[in-house]
Amino acid sequence: MNIRIHNQNFVLHPCGAAFWEEKKILLISDLHLGKIAHFRKHGMAIPEKAVHENFKRLNNILQLFDAETIIFLGDLFHSKMNNEWEFFADWTKTVTQQLILVEGNHDIISKKNYTDLNIEIHPEIIIDDFLLTHHPSRAENFFNLCGHIHPGIKLKGLGRQFLSLSCFFRKPDQLIFPAFGEFTGNFYLIPEENDTVYVLAKDEVIEIKR
């Protein structure tokens, strides 16, 4: 799905990433690498192949767009270092794009680990009149691109059936990104009058207005 924000074009993809066409930037939030390995370590029965699913999805989205930069909007790595970091380090060697991280609350490992991989780290980024953060923020005259919340929405059918889906959640001055990573969960939001929701379906993004 293509949307326009402040005269800029963004392509929303059903995997939860967005491509900023004019800047050739791929935006991804809440990847939470290391979370699956953390769950497995604590006895949860998650197949080992699930560890590689995030990297497969990353590679698939990179093939679709001519991105020159990838900006992670926080929570790139879930918490403490584990073996998924080695998979990530190997993955960074396969990409040519500049990698930038906007720090999230889960990004607690040493910054040196990122700089050793030539990944820039910033508490926030300003590009033209866009403010890129992890936590939803507001600044006068800026449109905020952010993550953190893992937004989702519950849709009610004609009967008693409910459908729970991840989404991009747009307010007049803000776009909250869905979590890109596997096994991240959702926080379900209720749209207000001026909000727009872009639901992630299997193969498409569908706009839902209140």
From TrEMBL:
Pfam families to which the protein is assigned, alphabetical: Metallophos
Keyword Acyltransferase: no
Keywords: Endonuclease, Hydrolase, Ligase, Nuclease
Residues covered by the Calcineurin-like phosphoesterase domain: 24-119
One GO molecular-function entry: ligase activity
Matching InterPro entries: Calcineurin-like_PHP, Metallo-depent_PP-like, PdeM-like, Pesterase_MJ0037-like
SUPFAM superfamilies noted in UniProt: Metallo-dependent phosphatases (SSF56300)
Name the UniProt record assigns to this protein: Ligase-associated DNA damage response endonuclease PdeM
Species: Flavobacterium ginsengiterrae
